[in-house]
């Protein structure tokens, strides 16, 4: 059989993972990235057990785990700093086969790019359109034109592939709150456990990174595009410096010019992730809020599942239909669950906040772990 070719649009985590999965199966791949180079900036990423299972299928789980850190435990605290719920990482690993690993996004991206041939990575190759070329789709990009057997749209929330081939699909929708992300300088005394602190219409979270650094994130219910104060860092201090320890110390260790802020959007459900020989993957297909830490995890699952479906048949269109049946119900369910958790976390009416915190405090730890099974209990196709 002639070597099959795939064009991956988007050089983020999902796109690179899909390229690796296909390359290891003998496909000729090219990854078209609009930016001048393949890189990620600024923040950490949580890889839950399901993501580690996907990386295991790619042969990268051990290498990626070595780049990150595994905290002993984590959980949720209230605005006074009291624990509402806690999760033991050892128990998480025992139940689901891997622990929760946290690392810098740039380190994960580097591990993925290093697993691909250099000539398959094509930066500065913005895609303008994907067209139906009969037997093969046609991808118009800055470097010219590609006519592969398969196109994977992994180009994020505002996907050019989705915009071209799903012109009637609803666009991204603002979820009602904005987010800040930041990484501290190395600390001599880091918190033993990570946590998300729930306030009223706001949250602050932190977790360990290698080298004594901490990855921190915060949310606040604000209109889309709301202006900050003199700087994002000043805005953070105004909103969160009065919060319980260790929040003030963590903010003090954040370089003021490195704070990232993004209004949060998700994607209304699509009726299909495929059109002929074109498949959407990751945020291009199912952008979700970060409340479950599952955005990149689901993109990794997508990549592994897509390659598995293509193993089963030489008919690319049929394989993509199988991919859609496997991935669309799961990812859309997780997106809904993440949105509900975000709505609960952002509650601001005092009686509702009291009820929320009381319910979280009364929930047994084992019940919490059981509730996570539909999300974290995924294993790669072929391992089941």
From TrEMBL:
Superkingdom of source: Bacteria
A Pfam family assignment: FAD_binding_3
GO molecular function, one term: monooxygenase activity
Coiled-coil stretches noted in the UniProt entry, renumbered to this chain: none
Annotated ranges, domain FAD-binding: 7-337
Keyword tags: Monooxygenase, Oxidoreductase
Stored InterPro entries: FAD-bd (IPR002938), FAD-dep_Monooxygenase_BioMet (IPR050493), FAD/NAD-bd_sf (IPR036188)
SUPFAM superfamilies assigned to the protein according to its UniProt record, in alphabetical order: FAD/NAD(P)-binding domain
Protein's name according to its UniProt entry: 2-polyprenyl-6-methoxyphenol hydroxylase
Taxonomic source organism: Streptomyces wuyuanensis
């Amino acid at each position: 059989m002639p070597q099959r070719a795939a064009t991956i649009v988007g050089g983020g985590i999902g796109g690179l993972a899909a390229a690796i999965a296909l390359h290891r199966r003998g496909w000729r791949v090219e990854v078209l990235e609009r930016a001048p180079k393949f890189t990620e900036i600024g923040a950490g990423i949580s890889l839950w057990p399901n993501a580690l299972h996907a990386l295991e299928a790619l042969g990268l789980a051990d290498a990626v785990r070595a780049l990150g850190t595994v905290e002993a435990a984590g959980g949720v605290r209230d605005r006074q700093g009291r624990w509402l719920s806690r999760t033991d990482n050892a128990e998480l690993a025992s139940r689901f086969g891997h622990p929760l690993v946290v690392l810098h996004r740039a380190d994960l991206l580097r591990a993925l790019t290093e697993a691909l041939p250099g000539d398959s990575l094509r930066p500065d190759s913005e895609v303008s359109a994907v067209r139906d070329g009969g037997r093969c789709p046609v991808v118009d990009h800055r470097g010219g034109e590609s006519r592969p057997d398969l196109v994977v749209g992994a180009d994020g929330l505002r996907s050019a592939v989705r915009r071209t081939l799903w012109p009637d699909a609803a666009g991204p929708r603002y979820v009602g709150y904005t987010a800040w992300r930041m990484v501290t300088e190395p600390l001599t005394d880091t918190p033993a456990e990570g946590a998300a602190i729930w306030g009223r219409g706001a949250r602050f979270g932190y977790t360990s990174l290698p080298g004594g650094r901490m990855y921190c994130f915060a949310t606040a219910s604000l209109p889309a595009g709301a202006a900050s104060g003199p700087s994002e860092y000043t805005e953070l201090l105004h909103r969160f410096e009065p919060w319980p320890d260790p929040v003030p110390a963590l903010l003090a260790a954040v370089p003021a010019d490195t704070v990232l802020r993004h209004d949060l959007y998700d994607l209304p459900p699509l009726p299909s992730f495929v059109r002929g020989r074109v498949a959407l993957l990751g945020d291009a297909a199912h952008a979700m809020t970060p409340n479950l830490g599952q955005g990149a995890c689901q993109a990794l699952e997508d990549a592994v599942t897509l390659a598995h479906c293509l193993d089963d048949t030489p008919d690319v269109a049929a394989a993509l239909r199988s991919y859609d049946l496997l991935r669309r119900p799961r990812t859309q369910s997780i997106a809904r669950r993440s949105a509900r958790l975000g709505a609960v976390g952002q509650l601001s009416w005092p009686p509702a906040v009291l009820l929320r915190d009381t319910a979280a405090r009364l929930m047994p730890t084992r019940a919490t772990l059981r509730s996570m099974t539909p999300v974290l209990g995924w294993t790669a196709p072929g391992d089941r």
